[in-house]
Write a structure and sequence with these properties.
Elements lengths: L2 E9 L19 E6 L20 E7 L4 E8 L16 E10 L19 E9 L9 E8 L3 E7 L8 H11 L1 E3 L2 E4 L3 E8 L22 E8 L4 E9 L9 H5 L6 E6 L6 E6 L7 E5 L4 E6 L12 E7 L6 E6 L3 H4 L9 E6 L4 E5 L9 E5 L7 E6 L5 E6 L3 E6 L9 E4 L7 E6 L5 E6 L3 E8 L1
Parallel strand pairs: 5-9
Antiparallel strand pairs: 1-29, 2-3, 3-4, 4-5, 6-7, 7-8, 8-10, 11-12, 12-13, 13-14, 15-16, 16-17, 17-18, 19-20, 20-21, 21-22, 23-24, 24-25, 25-26, 27-28, 28-29
Length: 457
């Protein structure tokens, strides 16, 4: 029996529109992007959940009303006489935990009659800010890009304190709002493509007994697409951590410097429509463009990695698509090397407005064998988002045709492993993401609908 099924649907609009969109008086706020957090969370001993249940999962949404909202998914607590299972929709609990705001941004209006006046967020990215083996260390860093080029970053604790139901009710209002740590505006930005570089040991200063204790750790880098076809790299001012994160909120939120432009590559090209960093070779970056071309860049000298300040060269230039590339994702480790992680991200998976999927081996030295697979007409309309399922050879796509499809990189000729439909099959699905534990997926659409799926094989 397949483990793929829809677990939960929730419309985030205060007064959702009818499925056919006929009632124009009802408020409809599209969701443009969604991502699961890469941070694992522990479960307190007093929580009574099903033995097979997984720890709570966090995800965020980018909304057209100009707000980023943070949610938590958890398996429903066991009642004394109940036998809920994790694949039963009634066993799933979804709750909004925070609204992420800018420095001077007012909270969402409480009145359902209020008008949307802000410029929406188009894209978000999330990393776990830690380099090391301690799975309990490292904060969650969120970056969001607004359509007018405004960039905001938030630092959120990886494992927030768990509250009892009574404590949650008492503290819900005061905990709902979280303000940004850093924000800046990039006037030349496209307003649609952004990525944050995952931290790695190459971002840290050399270890030496003679090193000064005051030596500054390199800060996290944000890559932003510009209208002239270039990528701008900004020093976010948020330091990369290689130690246990301090408990103090003031210490956690401390930023070492103001954001600043430190490098740019690829100027003079066609407008960039998507960006993704490589999951293990963190200075390698792939970009998709409006004309359907794809470029992969990396530092010229890997022997002396310089992060975003290094001189870059173009490794690959792919031309198989003929319409805008809206989404790129790298394969998970088991796709190419048995899951041991040593060849993590060998395959680049691309989705375009032409509805086709192409899969490239970016480590291939032969230009004639770089493209390893293709899926013509994978969707009947634009492919809007792609993601890999961690520790798996599978990946997910969604599109303007209202479909969410699961594929296997080793079985692409067999068609989709599973296909989900939106309610009524009429909504454009703009975002899809898989959880770090490979057990759940989420999607968001232009009708404000969040859907949660099980993806256990």
């Amino acid at each position: 029996m397949s483990g793929y099924r829809t677990l939960h649907r929730e419309n985030t609009n205060p007064h959702p529109a009818d499925e056919d969109g006929s009632n124009s008086k009802k408020t409809v706020i599209p969701l443009w992007h969604t991502l699961f957090s890469p941070c694992a969370q522990s479960r307190p001993s007093h929580h009574r959940t099903a033995p097979s249940s997984s720890p709570p999962l966090r995800f965020l949404t980018a909304s057209a009303d100009g707000y980023v909202r943070a949610y938590e998914i958890s398996d429903k607590e066991i009642s004394r006489g109940g036998e809920d299972t994790m694949l039963d929709a009634s066993a799933l609990k979804l709750k909004m935990k925070h609204v992420l705001l800018g420095h001077n941004q007012p909270p969402p209006a409480s009145s359902p009659q209020s008008k949307v006046t802000d410029i929406g967020y188009s894209k978000i990215d999330i990393i776990r800010n830690y380099v090391g083996e301690d799975t309990k260390s490292g904060d969650e860093v969120v970056v969001a890009l607004r359509l007018d080029g405004l960039v905001r970053l938030w630092i959120r604790p990886q494992c927030p304190p768990y509250l009892t139901t009574e404590e949650e009710q008492q503290q819900e209002d005061e905990n709902l709002i979280q303000y940004s740590t850093v924000e800046f505006k990039v006037k030349e930005s496209t307003g649609t493509s952004i990525a944050i570089r995952p931290p790695s040991h190459s971002a840290l200063p050399p270890s030496s007994s003679n090193s000064s204790k005051k030596q500054r750790i390199q800060n996290l880098t944000v890559a932003i697409a510009n209208l002239n076809g270039s990528i701008s790299f900004y020093d976010s001012g948020i330091p990369v951590h290689n130690h246990h994160i301090p408990e103090s909120q003031d210490e956690r939120q401390q930023v070492e410097c103001e954001p600043k432009l430190i490098n740019s590559i690829g100027s003079g090209g066609v407008i960039i429509t998507s960006i993704v960093y490589h999951p293990s070779q963190h200075d390698t970056i792939a970009v998709g463009r409006k004309d359907g071309t794809i470029d992969v860049y990396a530092p010229s000298n890997y022997e002396s990695p310089g992060g975003a300040t290094a001189a870059y060269k173009r490794l690959h230039h792919f031309t198989n698509h003929f319409k805008p590339i809206r989404s790129l994702t790298f394969s998970s480790s088991s796709s190419s090397n048995g899951g041991n992680g040593s060849n993590d991200g060998a395959l680049l998976i691309t989705g375009s407005d032409d509805g086709h999927i192409f899969i490239y081996d970016i480590f291939s030295r032969s230009t004639s064998t770089t493209m390893v697979s293709s899926i013509p007409n994978a969707h009947t309309s634009w492919i809007l988002s792609t993601c890999s399922i961690p520790n798996s050879s599978r990946f997910v796509t969604c599109g303007a045709d209202g479909k969410i499809k699961v594929w296997d990189t080793s079985l692409v000729n067999a068609g989709a492993v599973h296909t989900f439909d939106t309610v009524g099959g009429k909504n454009m699905v703009w975002g899809v993401s898989a959880s770090y534990d490979s057990r759940k997926m989420i999607s968001c659409d232009d009708n404000g609908m969040i859907q949660v799926y099980s993806c256990e094989e």
